[in-house]
Design goal:
It contains 15 helices and 17 strands. It has about 400 residues and is α/β, with parallel strands linked by helices. It folds into two domains: about 130 residues, Aspartate Aminotransferase, domain 1 (Alpha-Beta Complex); about 260 residues, Aspartate Aminotransferase, domain 2, CATH 3.40.640. A seven-stranded mixed beta sheet has the order 4-10-9-8-7-5-6, with helices on both faces. The chain binds pyridoxal-5'-phosphate. Pyridoxal-5'-phosphate binds next to helix 4. The site of pyridoxal-5'-phosphate has 14 residues, from helix 4.
Length: about 400
């Protein structure tokens, strides 16, 4: 393997700390990832030098900040292979991107008797905005159920689409079970019926090669902080024709062409959807994160994660009285499990004392847990800076938990 994890770890200062006297083992990457020094320095560099508001000033710093901001947009475009830079909208995260589409798209496209379809695996961020949009429009929200392995086929998805469906919204990778959905095939099925598709890529962008043109999705969104970038910045990609036809999500400065006391005309894309002062430092930090990943090589990263996932699954399967949910062999490096007779919260609290960060609970996917009939799971979500030694420490801690609660 070309990937030298020990060298890579040196880029992440947060890894070199102790928690309760143990070296930190950070296995909560689906919630947020650690940041490489390149990202921390890019943010600090922006505030230490070219800090300025964008698109407004004639002065030197404003020009530099605008160039850095627009350079970040261009690099995001390239990273996801969008056709135009103006199809890339900066938001504060995946949640805001989905709310933007749920409100703006629905305002002109969703009416009484229409339907929005989502998958049964969605994070609340790709569920609640659609509940609200449907309530406001008098439309119905339909849910595509997942099977016992946590999967949804294109055929199953297609069965829930009809002439009434105005949009299909689904996750690329489930944050609670790690399932990788066959989004390309599902999009093909939806498009044959003329239905646009939004893909929630909050987890997908981290673990998959994303090419929005090859996927042919109509919208794709993600958060910077889950892909080694800063918090408070995210991306909405939308096909030009949809974005052009949509009304702005928020109004105010930056998003206008001209304003009188009674009326305003809106700016062109992408600015129409970027009201107010944007998170320039966030965009600069996200840019550094994407460049950092490209420097390591996305394929190297994904191959290493697959290796680590296989190692983790084998280690967990060898433990007694463990139940793994979903079918993680087919998914991304996110593993949800429970130990017989032990509440996930209790297990998580003990594991924490060994310096190991895992997440316990419903993972903002309460309906998924309800459907599985469980209160929540223990979730270990891996990144390319994790090691097999850390997985060994996790399995040792799990054995300890079982001993304590026996
Ligand atoms: N969608 C998925 C699949 C997620 O995992 C998350 C966060 O965990 C979100 C959306 C929401 O992301 P954010 O809170 O960064 O907006």
């Amino acid at each position: 393997m070309i990937f030298n994890v020990d060298e890579v770890r040196k880029d992440f200062p947060a890894l070199f700390q102790e928690v309760y006297g143990h070296p930190l083992a950070y296995l909560d990457n689906a919630a947020t990832t650690l940041k490489p020094s390149a990202v921390i320095q890019a943010i600090s560099g922006y505030y230490s030098t070219i800090n300025s508001n964008v698109h407004r000033g004639v002065h030197y710093l404003s020009g530099e900040a605008t160039a850095a901001f627009e350079n970040a947009r261009e690099n995001v475009r390239r990273f996801i292979n969008a056709e135009h830079g103006h199809e890339v909208i900066f938001t504060k995260g995946a949640t805001e991107a989905i709310n933007l589409v749920a409100q703006s798209f629905s305002a002109t496209n969703l009416g009484r008797g229409d339907e929005i379809v989502v998958s049964g695996l969605e994070h609340h961020a790709n569920l609640v905005p659609w509940q609200n949009a449907c309530r406001s429009a008098g439309a119905t929200l339909k849910i595509i159920p997942f099977d016992e392995k946590g999967e949804i086929s294109a055929e199953q998805a297609g069965a829930f689409l009809s002439g009434k469906t105005k949009l299909l919204a689904l996750t690329h990778v489930s944050n609670s079970l790690g399932t990788l959905l066959p989004v390309k095939e599902i999009i093909q099925v939806a498009h044959r019926m003329g239905i646009p598709v939004l893909v929630d890529g909050a987890q997908g962008i981290v673990h998959c090669e994303v090419d929005v043109r090859a996927l042919d999705c109509d919208f794709y969104c993600f958060s910077g902080h889950k892909i080694y970038g800063p918090m408070g910045i995210g991306i909405l990609y939308g096909k030009e024709r949809w974005l052009e036809a949509m009304e702005p999500y928020q109004t105010g400065g930056e998003m206008i062409k001209s304003v009188s006391y009674q009326h305003a005309t809106y700016n062109d894309l992408p600015y129409k959807f970027e009201a107010g002062t944007p998170n320039v430092a966030g965009a600069v930090g996200l840019n550094a994160a994407l460049e950092y990943m490209e420097g390591l090589g996305k394929e190297n990263i994904h191959n290493y994660e697959k290796y680590l996932l296989a190692y983790t699954l084998k280690a967990l399967e060898n433990l007694p009285a463990i139940r793994i949910y979903g079918h993680p062999g087919h998914g991304a490096a996110v593993i949800s499990f429970l130990m017989e007779g032990i509440h996930p919260y209790d297990a998580g609290s003990v594991i924490d004392r060994f310096g190991i960060a895992v997440r316990t609970g419903h993972h903002c996917a309460q309906p998924v847990m309800d459907r599985l009939g469980i209160p929540g799971t223990i979730r270990a979500s891996l990144a390319f800076y994790n090691t097999t030694e850390e997985i060994d420490r996790l399995t040792a801690a799990l054995l300890k938990v079982q001993e304590m609660f026996a």
